[in-house]
Amino acid sequence: MKANERIVGLYEDKAAAFDRMRGRGLIEAPWLDRFLTHVRPGGAILDIGCGMGEPVAAYFIARGHEVTGVDSSPSLIALCRERFPDQDWIVADMRALDLGRRFDGVIAWHSLFHLSPDDQPPLFPRFAAHARPGAPLMFTSGPDRGEEIGDWLGEPLYHGSLAPDEYCALLAANGFGEVTHCPRDPGCGGATVWLAIRS
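Above: the chain sequence. Below: its structure as tokens.
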């Protein structure tokens, strides 16, 4: 099995370890706050690749937002339901996401980049279909087009990325403007962050 095809099973098999190891220190907070400046008070947020709901979804919930979290791992979603029972948690592959509703904000933090470059472009119409006019979309990517395979708990961990101009074209084609692109943000652990607003 190719490393990119193993991602779904890897997070399910290692769900307990991921829960223990995922930092809760919120180096993401400045970006999450920037995202929230575009979300109406109490607005509904779609968290794609939500994991066990911590720390990102928990940050939004603590600030009064309704969160719908989607993840392919039933074990991680079970943790979300246990910890945040008043929110909506859905087991689904993001590549087939079709919830039939729109949100005041859409985020795919450290999740889109687990898909191959070929699998990423079809996600952008799905992002658009779930975003209300004026809603922010925020996601992380690699800094350049390519694929990298790291090691996590003795197994290959896949990351894929498009080139910046490809992301810009996809955002524009799917009705997202006011694009902010920060490659390798040193204040956010070197994450490459994208923030765009649905027209």
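The longest strand covers residues 176-185.
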